[in-house]
Amino acid sequence: MSETILDVQHLTHQFRLTKHTTIRAVDDVSFQLQRGEIFGLVGESGSGKSTVARCIMNLYRPAGGRIFYRGVNVCDPKQYRMHKNMLQTTRQMIFQDSTSSLNQRMTVADIIMEPMAINHIAPPGGSLRAEAERQLHDVGMDASYLNKYPPELSGGMRQRVAIARALSMEPDFIVADEPIASLDVSIQAQIINLFKHLQAEHGFTFLFIAHDLAVVKYLCDRVGVMCHGKLVEIAPAAELFAHPAHPYTKLLLSAVPIPDPRLERARVLQTFDPSDLQDTGEMREICRDHFARMPVEGVPH
Amino acid sequence: MDDQGFACAGIRPLSHGPAPQKQRWYRGKPIVSILLLAGIILGCLFCNAFIPKDPTYMDLFHYDEAPGREFLFGTDAMGRDIFSIVWYGGRLSLLIGFSATAISTAIAVVFGAVSGLAPRWLDAVLMRLTEILLSVPNLLIIILIQAILGKPNVLSISFAIGITSWTGIAKIVRTEVRQMRSSEYVLAARCMGGGFFHILWRHLMPNFISSIMFMVVMNVRNAIAAESTLSFMGIGLPWEVISWGSMLSLSEKALLSGSWWMILIPGLFLVVTLLCVTNIGNWLRKQTNCRQSNL
Ligand SMILES: Nc1ncnc2c1ncn2[C@@H]1O[C@H](COP(=O)(O)OP(=O)(O)OP(=O)(O)O)[C@@H](O)[C@H]1O
Ligand SMILES: [Mg+2]
Q1: Which residues are registered as beta bridge partners of A267?
Q2: Ligand 1 centroid vs A12 CA: distance in angstroms?
Q3: Chain A residue numbers touching B184 (CB-CB < 8 A)
Q4: Rounded mean pLDDT of chain A?
């Protein structure tokens, strides 16, 4: 883990609702991803995680800041056009809701073959269809599903198809935007294990967006916590769960239900006032690799 | 892949249930319309095989003759055998109907998709443009185009009709695309690097095709009717180029001489075709409505 594959610097994005009101969905977010790591991005609903992911994938043009992917500034239209092919083939995205991220009128085989067909990739498995079958097999489904349409599959299978589609390009970098949020718990576990297995096998870099802390703790190497568009804390997963520094992180951690009823009763929900998130805060290193957002004076709230 | 280091519980092999009961395939379908229309289309296409006379030959000894043994549907004022020319001319009418529809649908789909995918200001500009076009009488535009293109022929008529009848479809396409464009499968295709036409063809078109199908079929009808109207008014095909419309354009003389067959026969073919197309179009619309409510 040495090479920085993704470098997000001071990313800012705002949505214009009417002429006079804009919302800052993402506000001065910076983080780096090393090659081969799994980075988790957590935060409550509406904290801007999807917006970060979509800026990284060039689906939104950020209002400010820069995003470097393998040294290419993807926000710069000129550089983007120059490296378009590399960017499109080595980065892939998996969406939250597999019902809407798969076109209902395409068969599973067509869906998996689509990125290869667009980019004119010669499939390593001979024909495109053989390659689709191999990818499907990799995510634990057999060839009998190739001619099915997405509505005929269960949610977990659809998500597997979406994963197979993303993996069919052998990408270096995958962004998964809450890929398990729409699944039920037992299927979630399957998909998480599948991710872990596939990541170990292919070694891709993985930006995993979730709001379920337990999943992040299990899967990710490092975790970033977002709150109201700002990144408030970044730390290795174990460190973050052991010693949360920012009050918002403490709140999130205290909100996780504990399976033991006695402990659960004694659990105190931390409080956090979002107005404490001042504009003047900055990221400080608390201990090795552990950053938290502090007011400039240096006292955490 | 020989690595099976993970268990995939919960995936059962597919079971094949009993085949669904066979329904009568023609139930609820506009069978009469389909058969009649198929008969007319096939008859026009293969008319060379059965028409008794050369449709362009003017028999100066037998003009204005009532239907009889030799001339099944009679002859027109130029002495042409109506039975022959009504099939022969149907070709052109249908050809104009379909090619004008192809032109208008292609324009509508591309225009609607561009407008649907465009940023808000461009979308507004394009939509105002269609409204302006919609408010100018079609006839005026057609006459203008005819004036530019010169002597009317099949191609220029199709073009003129096609270019004036795409706005309705374009508006539907635009609305549908606007709804679909932020859906995640379109975003996913964009992430993969799919271009405008790829997304349009693979993702958008299959999803909006059913909602414009009715309009497209109605466009065929309108184009056939428009050709007849134009030719009847004398600004369409000239009388020596045989189509149902140009046959009807001779009818005013026929009215004076009381030869009803000259109007009735091509008119009947025209009306039956239009009715069949309308009927099929209505059935298509019902189909799509059913499908949407079943979702
Ligand atoms: N297309 C849009 N137009 C206007 N506002 C938007 C748009 N997309 C997101 N927002 C706003 O931006 C903010 C961040 O949204 P975002 O989707 O990034 O949140 P999120 O962290 O992904 O939430 P969730 O966990 O629910 O997916 C929200 O306040 C949302 O209302
Ligand atoms: Mg989201």
Answers
A1: none
A2: 13
A3: 95-97, 100-101
A4: 86
| Contact between chains at A102 and B6 (C-beta distance less than 8 A) | no
Q: What separation in Å is there between the alpha carbon of A48 and the centre of ligand 1?
A: 6
The CA distance from B198 to the nearest CA of chain A, in Å, is 8
* Domain B71-293 belongs in CATH node 3.40.50.1980: no
**pLDDT digits 0-9 by tens, A61-89:** 999 899 999 989 998 889 999 998 899 88
Q: What is the CATH number of domain A4-295?
A: 3.40.50.300
What's the pLDDT tens digit per position in A209-235? 998 888 898 899 999 999 888 898 999
Q: Compute CA distances A30 → A91, B56, B291, whole Å.
A: 19, 80, 48
pLDDT attached to residue A138: 84
Which has the closest alpha carbon to A222: A200, A206, A198, A243? A206
Q: Whose CA is nearest to atom 17 of ligand 1?
A: A50
Domain map of chain A by residue range? 4-295
DSSP letter string, A241-289: HHS--SHHHHHHHHTSPPSSHHHHHH-------GGG--TT-EEEEEETT
Does residue A156 line the site of ligand 1, with CB under 6 A?
A: no
The ipTM of this complex is 0.81
